[in-house]
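[Protein data]
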Amino acid sequence: MFYEELNECCPLLLEKFAEVEELLEKHKLNLDRKSYKVIYEGIDLLKEIELKLYNSLNSEQEQKDNVKDLIKLLLAIGYLKTGLLYTDTEELKVAEEYFMKCIDILRGRELEPKCVVPVLATLNQLGIIWSQWSQPEKAKIFLDRAKQIYIDYTDQKNPEDPIDLISNFNIVEKGLSFKQVLDKLYILTLYYLAQVYGALKNHHKSAVYCHITLRLQLEQNEVINDLDYIEWALNAATLSQCFLENEGFTQARHHLAAAYYILEKYEKIMKEKESEMESEVAAAEYERFKHRSADVARCWAKYGLLLLSASINRLVKKVESDETDCNDTEDSQLDSKAEKDSEKSFDDLKFDILMDDIKPIVNQITDAYLLDFDDAKPVFLNIQNWLDQAKAYYTLENHASDYVEIIQDLSSAYKYLSFFEESEDRQAKMHKRRIDILEATVKELNPQYYKNVCRRIWTELGTTYSDIMNIKLDRLRANNDRAEPQALNKINNLAKSGIKNYQFFLDSLDNNSTDGRNITFPPDLEKAALVAYFLLGGLYNKMFTFDKSVQLVNTQNSLNAYKFVIDYCETHPEASEMIKEEFNLCREIVNLLPVKINKLKLELMEK
């Protein structure tokens, strides 16, 4: 009956729409700039259809109400499709005008079965456009409206059977039921809302909408099996990092386990379908799988690193506040920083459909704060394993920058583990392991091409040598014995190695000068450079020697480094705020070192 009415009021209209679809199929096969010609041909055909519909709607001939409603619906679909084509040509303003025409003509009919799909599709498109125009508040208005229309429609009891405009006018992909189409559009609405809330800095709601989107995709996949497994896993792993920012380790672990499980599941699917796929297609998909599996492994490593770091910070704060009477077992259970209310809690963000499947993965690592070495070591070993997985894809030869970040994560893992180690010897060995892997990496890099990467490694090496040196110095002070020459040589060699790496970093800075008053560091390097000078001063000052002339040189070098920091901060006052603690120490030390220098000079003159 519907199509009989359609052909009666608008002869040959379906053929015109079919002609547009043929052009769009050509466009899909040819995505370069030349395809714009095809798009504009489609736009011209749609405008012809719209004109006929508009004339029919406004003709003097009296139309039945149902026919008028039908014509308005078809006109709205024409506007929607025209707007979509204008988005393809990046003419967003024109596209927005056509989308608004679609919304206006269907106003008041949003909950009709034959109207709800084009309305939801159009509101989503308006949300995207206003997001692209960096107006998230405006985008949110359209997306909130789409969300509410979906809720209102699905809450209806026994809604009228829909007319199938979906497959005939290709608003969404074919082969889906009406309910599946609605659900897909709703998932897109929530996905776009997640992006909008992110742009509005409401990270809690952004995370919630991301999670709901992922959950609905899983549930829908049970019915229509169209999930992009790799994309889903990457999104779940990425979302875990949002929870980690709030120390929501329980939620982060759950999402990472889900990501890992989905990737495992997809690997099995790929193996089953490998014989059916073309070799090039299969190779490309395996490459994509390996790439994203490495990314998920890196997210797992970040989880372990942040768990170690958060546990260390918590233990340090407990010592500082003398909270010796707290119940460690009870406190070790991790709670999110978020308030326990429906608006801010992440507690309910679980994938119920996967709970049994991911349980073995979840149980591989704790989500509780770590209290001692026995707690920390399994986390460290997991991190080590995940980073090895990541390195299998992100090799030094093909992905140098990513490889270095992975190496630095491994270095951080050793550093955090050393905090829980009571033996000073084993602490020093862990730092030595950091040095070995960092030096092995930087030796393979050309500083000319990987300057920023090398800078990061040099500063970390300088810090690591300093860490070992401080362990040795603490042992000397604790023993109160006369140090053996061999021990003093070790300390001096550690100091020299630290100095050498800090100097590599400083020499790499463009227009580096020894006068802090005659240089301005780039903003992104300013703090690192000043801290390097500050640490240089400390290393020179801690070296041991019985040769007064060498001691004088070291002390003068130490004074020069500290004075550089003061001179720079006096000519760049804002810099002193970045390194307030170091700056204040520099001012104290430069008042003391000249006395020591004068004393050394006098002693040398008396010889």
